[in-house]
Amino acid sequence: VFGKDITLILLLNNLSFDHKTVKVDMSASTILYTRRAVAEILKATTSVELGSKQGKHIRLKIPYSYYGKYLTTDKRIQVTALCEVMHMHGVKLLVEKTIILEDTNIIIKIPRRVAVNKAVTLEISYANPLPEPVNHCVLLVTLMNQQVKIRLAPLAPRQRSKIYFEFTPRRTGPLQLQVDFSCDKFSHIKGFVTISVAPA
After folding, report:
1. How far apart are CA 14 and CA 29, in angstroms?
2. Model's pTM, two decimal places?
3. Which residues contact 173 (CB under 8 A, 6 or more apart)?
4. Alpha carbons 108 and 110: distance in angstroms, whole number
5. If you ran DSSP here, which 8-state letter would residue 102 be given?
6. For residue 123, what pLDDT is reported?
7. DSSP letters of 131-181?
8. Greater pLDDT, 75 or 29
9. What's the pLDDT tens digit per position in 70-100?
């Protein structure tokens, strides 16, 4: 989840009866959806001794403080581990993992019945998922081809807040409501919901 530390485990298994020493070079970079690297955020090297038919775990932690300011709106991190078996010429294995961080941010609550030409109040709840305060918060609400920009108060670390939004639907059928939440530390966290408008 965006804003939390990421914990990964690399599993190494020695499939042979021989003792093995494995050098592991691990790195992590923020990337775009095209897989183009944006910034390297972690680099670590370790050596692992594996006995006959033995398996071992290597834990890797990427704190929010490492990736936060380098993450793009794609919210992707590429982690690679290059494992080299020592004293065996040219035996290398590359393991890759792409992590897409989740937003569990925006919650939109709508009344059970929404009818045409009757005012409706929605509850839009939003949160700061980060371990630090955020400022210059803005909600952009898009509904019926119109956009409303709402400036919000600063949020403390991990704070959740909510606003009430009133509108009157002018036609029956499905209506798409989209909410885009941005602030000085992140941008374009989106939430959307389809509202079914019933006849009056």
Report:
1. 28
2. 0.70
3. 196, 197
4. 7
5. -
6. 95
7. SS-B-SEEEEEEETTEEEEEEE--B-TT-EEEEEEEE---SSEEEEEEEEE
8. 29
9. 988 788 999 999 999 988 777 899 999 999 9
Sorted by where each begins, the domain ranges of the chain are 6-100, 106-197
106-197: CATH class: mainly beta
The tokens for 33 are 């959806």
The whole-angstrom separation of Cα 1 and Cα 182 is: 17
Is domain 6-100 in CATH 2.60.40.10, yes or no?
yes
**Could you tell me the CA-to-CA distances from 129 to 33, 41, 55, 97, 103 in Å, in that order?**
22, 20, 36, 24, 9
DSSP E strands, 63-153: 76-85, 92-100, 107-109, 114-115, 120-127, 137-143, 146-152
The answer to whether the 6-100 and 106-197 domains have the same CATH topology is yes
Whether 73 and 190 have beta carbons less than 8 Å apart is answered as: no
Sequence length of the chain is: 200
